[in-house]
Design brief:
alpha+beta, globular, 29% strand, 19 helices, disordered N terminus
Length: 731
């Protein structure tokens, strides 16, 4: 299939004559953006869609967009999206003839496929044989070697103990990579540089693998230096036809989790070998699919050394749709979900290998609810303002998203919330388009990685196509993140002042009845305290009426500057401060029972967004300001907080110390799992630890999980302190 323009909303291809009709009802056994994306194609095909949801997702976008929706359990994935019996019962209740699993959850679960087969429900994916062989990394690696597919050197045998793996590691060589046999998405993978670190890392890897996949089987691979992660998209039907749709470059990864994906690969594009390497790696992927009689859409992942780009090694086969499938759709015009449905319904693949033409270039950025500056800590919150797709994208930008305004981001699931995909005539144009799209991406109320994504795709090495899987870790220390400054503080304060003026005018009472500081003569300036994300406080004085023109402002008693605020369109505010203009997305939020002012309650928070960056500013009352000031006074400047807090809601998965133990600063105390990631909490200072939680406990955001009591001062320190006091008394 050939196309000369990008495909943003894939349209159904004409159904071949003489084939049986497609399904009447399909259940989507997933959530989030992938459920919405599958539902979109089902609607285009005229198929009734059924969504399933947990209690945490009752108001989710995929629930709203489906024709029917069925509750399947509480928030925990193990009791809802991973519960096979609940999914099958939902199929029975709604008359669903087939299930599309999306990716993650049950998409590669062979027991789920068997259970559907037993009940006569079609699994929109490969057969049990493919899932069984390719679902286990050890088995799949050993299997494909017999079909001429090259593999990375290592040790991959089922059932190996830690002791056996440690013994075999010398033969593999260091550095090496620990990988979970049943896993995917980079979870449980760990790099080990030195033999002495292997034992402890194996224990962590087993715990993560068991928690994420229910299987703690591990294997070892030699770590390929300066590796490129290149994968090939395949399509296969039940009539013996297997094709590939080119490759994708997925080398920009963090913790083995992809962040930026693109098609085609700049590495293979730069070879100038007439497409010979692309043809070889594509044929190797097709051979891997043929070896298990594959059916549907799948991806074969390869590791390629940057130093030898014509050599590639099989890593694994993902027997499902990939997160990054849109970039392939954008450059080929093929709707992969549509072909998954058609193939599962028994149709023959009408797209031949010669029909596949790669047109232009496409790049995808994964948007996560996380805080890059805090080691990519996942974030929760409520979306208070959303604007994801630029109006002038002209069909060059596609956004796959599950977000809606008012949606509460839960800690129960993966932090990926959307994907922004851009197309261009060439790689530079695609990256430029993606950068513009991210600059216009607005999701206020939650922390996202959008600013970080813009920094990454504008890095000189990324722009030049010099990619490898370790690039993000190397580049991160050089990235400079934006923080709230005078513009943002003034924007929040002036906005609150304007609201106050509006409320006073609308109150309909005389000036003697208002508690707004009104007086004869010149109006009193309004003093507004703004709390910044770093814990600081800015006192802003606003003089004059914002609603009637230009006011003057000063910050913390500094020089006066002119300021004006206008709203060029909904939820956008233009602040002109000292003659310089800046436009923000703006969302005021009121939390709590306090209702200041005579009219509507003034906001307690103001969210601001500008060019992909956003921040949250607090509007402090006298009480909250005083509490902050006292807290700052009580703690010595630069002193570590002795309280260890959980950064977000989660489950304690391990506790490394006992109550009363002596610990040192930086020592791991416990691990909390949230948003499918494990976060290690460490001691902030030396001392004795007080800890009362145990493994399996649920913790809330900012809950104190441990406290460090510093050691008592030594006798020598006591003597010095007494001497200092005595000197002070003598003076």
């Amino acid at each position: 299939m050939t196309t000369s323009s990008p495909t943003t909303d894939s349209t159904p291809q004409q159904q071949p004559q003489g084939t049986r009709p497609l399904f009447g009802t399909v259940l989507v056994a997933n959530r989030g953006e992938i459920a919405c994306r599958v539902i979109r194609t089902l609607r285009a095909l005229g198929i009734r869609s059924v969504a399933v949801y947990s209690d945490a997702d009752a108001g989710a976008r995929h629930v709203r967009e489906a024709d029917l929706a069925v509750r399947i359990g509480p928030a925990a994935a193990a009791e809802s999206y991973l519960k096979v019996e609940a999914i099958i019962q939902a199929c029975r209740d709604t008359g669903a003839e087939a299930v599309h699993p999306g990716y993650g959850f049950l998409s590669e679960n062979v027991d789920f496929a068997r259970a559907l087969e037993k009940t006569g429900i079609t699994f929109i994916g490969p057969g049990v044989e493919s899932l069984n062989v390719m679902g286990d990394k050890i088995r799949s690696k050993n299997h494909v070697t017999g079909y001429g597919v090259p593999v990375v050197p290592g040790i991959a045998e089922p059932g190996m103990t830690d002791a056996q793996l440690i013994e075999a590691a010398a033969g593999v060589g260091f550095p090496l990579l620990i990988k979970p046999s049943a896993g995917g998405g980079g979870k449980g993978m760990h790099v080990v540089e030195r033999p002495e670190d292997l034992e402890a890392t194996l224990a962590t890897a087993r715990r993560v693998a068991a928690s994420a996949f229910g299987d703690d089987t591990l294997f070892l691979e030699r770590l390929v230096l300066t590796p490129r992660h290149i994968e090939v998209q395949v399509l296969a039907d039940n009539h013996g036809n297997v094709i590939h749709l080119g490759e994708r470059e997925c080398s920009l990864q963090r913790r083995h989790q992809k962040v930026i994906e693109e098609a085609p690969s700049p590495l293979l594009e730069a070879l100038n070998d007439g497409g010979a390497t692309r043809a070889r790696i594509g044929e190797a992927a097709c051979n891997a699919a043929r070896s298990v009689n594959y059916s549907g859409a799948g991806t074969v992942e390869f590791l390629v050394s940057d130093n030898a780009p014509d050599e590639f090694f099989f890593m694994e086969m993902n027997t499902r749709l990939q997160v990054e499938h849109p970039v392939t759709e954008m450059i080929t015009g093929v709707d992969l979900v549509e072909w998954q449905v058609r193939i599962a319904a028994g149709e023959e693949l009408t797209v031949r290998q010669d029909d596949v033409v790669l047109t232009g270039h496409s790049v995808e950025a994964r948007v996560y609810a996380e805080i890059p500056e805090k080691n990519f800590l996942p974030s929760i919150g409520q979306v208070v303002l959303l604007d994801e797709l630029p109006a002038d994208s002209a069909g060059r930008v596609r956004v796959d998203s599950a977000l809606v305004e008012g949606l509460q981001i839960s800690s129960s699931y993966d932090p990926m919330i959307s994907k922004v995909i851009a197309w261009g005539e060439d790689r530079t144009a695609a990256l430029d388009t993606l950068d513009q799209a991210l600059a216009g991406y607005t999701a206020l109320g939650i922390d996202t990685n959008v600013e970080y994504l813009r920094l990454l795709i504008n890095d000189a090495d990324v722009r030049a196509g010099r990619l490898d899987t370790g690039l993000i870790e190397r580049k991160m220390p050089d990235f400079s993140f934006r923080h709230a400054g005078d513009f943002e503080v003034v924007a929040a304060a002036v906005y609150v002042a304007a609201m106050h003026d509006h409320d006073a005018q609308d109150a309909g009472t005389g000036p003697w009845d208002l508690r707004d500081g009104w007086r004869l003569g010149v109006p009193a300036p309004r003093r507004i305290s703004v709390g910044t994300p770093d814990g600081g406080i800015a006192a802003v004085e606003v003089s004059g009426s914002i609603g009637q023109g230009t006011a003057t402002v000063s910050i913390d008693g500094g020089p006066l500057r002119t300021a004006s605020l206008r709203f060029p369109k909904r939820d956008h505010a233009e602040l002109i401060l000292g003659g310089v203009a800046r436009v923000y997305s703006l969302a005021p939020v009121h939390r709590g029972p306090v209702r200041p002012g005579p009219g509507n309650p003034l906001p307690t928070e103001v969210f601001l967004g500008n060019e992909g960056w956003s921040c949250r500013l607090e509007v402090l009352t006298r009480e909250t300001r005083l509490a902050r000031v006292l807290a700052a006074i009580e703690r010595e400047e630069g002193a570590a907080d002795p309280a260890v807090r959980s950064p977000m809601p989660g489950t304690v998965v391990s506790v490394s110390v006992s109550n009363g133990d002596t610990v040192t600063a930086g020592q791991v105390l416990l691990s909390v799992e949230a948003m499918k990631m494990e976060h290690q909490l460490v001691a902030p200072l030396d001392g004795t630890v007080h800890i009362s939680i145990t493994s399996g406990d649920l913790v809330k955001a900012e809950q104190v999980v441990a406290t460090i009591h510093p050691p008592a001062p030594s006798k020598a320190e006591d003597t010095i302190e007494e001497a200092v006091i005595a000197m002070g008394a003598a003076e």
